[in-house]
Amino acid sequence: MADPEILKTIAEATRLREGPAGVEAILRAVYRSGSLRLQDVAREARLPMPIATAVRRELEKAGLLERKQGLALSPEGRDFVERELGLGITIDVTCPACAGHGVVIPADFQAQVGRLAAIIAQAPSVDVTLDQAPCTPETSLLRALLMLQAGALEGRRVLLLGDDDSVSLAIGLVGQALGKADLTRGVVVVDADERRLAFLRENAAREGIALRTLHHDLRQPLPAELQGAFDTIETDPPYTLEGAKLFLTRGREALAGDGLCYFSFAQWPPRQMLALQRVFLDLGLAVQTIRPGFNAYAGATVLGNVGQLIELAAAGPAAAALPAWQGPLYTAEINPRIRAYVCTSCGREAVLGRGSTPETIEALKDQGCANCGGHSFRRKTGG
């Protein structure tokens, strides 16, 4: 019989911010599905993939999970969740058409999904030091369609603060599908990555999409021409509280009147979400809708490949304008840690950013193992 305290023990062993509730979420997801792939477990439990992997390992050690065409509860695990957690319902009430997103991509827009996917396939490599993690083409189209449905595009002045997701191109493609050269009164993209801006400009010109870009680091105050000049803001900032505060503040400074903000972010546990909601209040932003799991990302395993989209509306006076940002901002700056990887061919360990080893796993794969030249690595866990 499993110890009722096992959830707490596993949460502590894996340093799970969500605590025992996060472990329970994994067990619930597996129980309701019968058998589930690990990446689907992480998505259902709203946990980063590396964390879900660590929790799974501990649950297997405790004899509660086993491998059966995916993850499944052992007989002891099933007894535990039914007896200790009180589970017994396996019904799924999520809308099968929209997967709970509230919007779908109509059949008439599938050509736009394919076109955007072809464009994004040629995008510059991600810069993880800037927390870039592009979403899927389907997600970009869904964001554009959601904004269209809410009245945030037609006749609106639209500002995108960062656009490694190519939402600006999605907006243009949606307009073309509807027979309008430009749905908006202008779309502007501000980004610190000139490579990304050049990519957007070139493809916008090729596709006949009206788009203006501006190379600007949001750690510096907004140019005067952008302040109070937009009706709609869209942003997917660095997934730190500091990143959210900076990008939302710049967005609030750019809004004219009672504008709207479409804010994509990681699905944080309640304590961290409370701090994020305080940022909303300080900026005079009211939460209209929270859409969990709305965003799907390609390769962002640290996010569990999913994120939420929060619809915000300016509803009160904002805090004073923010001067230049001096402190840390991106994930690696906020949460510095030793990131060690092991070559799957020879077992040689490499620590990112140490000696001649690159700063990112992507760069390490490109460079290859210093010992054997291999290009496949796994994350080193444990001590």
From TrEMBL:
Ranges of residues in domain N(4)-bis(aminopropyl)spermidine synthase C-terminal: 115-300
Coiled coil: none
Organism whose genome encodes this protein: Rhodopseudomonas palustris (strain HaA2)
GO annotation, biological process: polyamine biosynthetic process
Pfam families referenced in this protein's UniProt entry, alphabetically: BpsA_C
InterPro entries: BpsA_C (IPR002723), rRNA_MeTrfase/Polyamine_Synth (IPR051720), SAM-dependent_MTases_sf (IPR029063), WH-like_DNA-bd_sf (IPR036388), WH_DNA-bd_sf (IPR036390)
Molecular function as annotated in GO: transferase activity
PANTHER family from the UniProt entry: RRNA N6-ADENOSINE-METHYLTRANSFERASE METTL5
Name the record gives this protein: N(4)-bis(aminopropyl)spermidine synthase C-terminal domain-containing protein
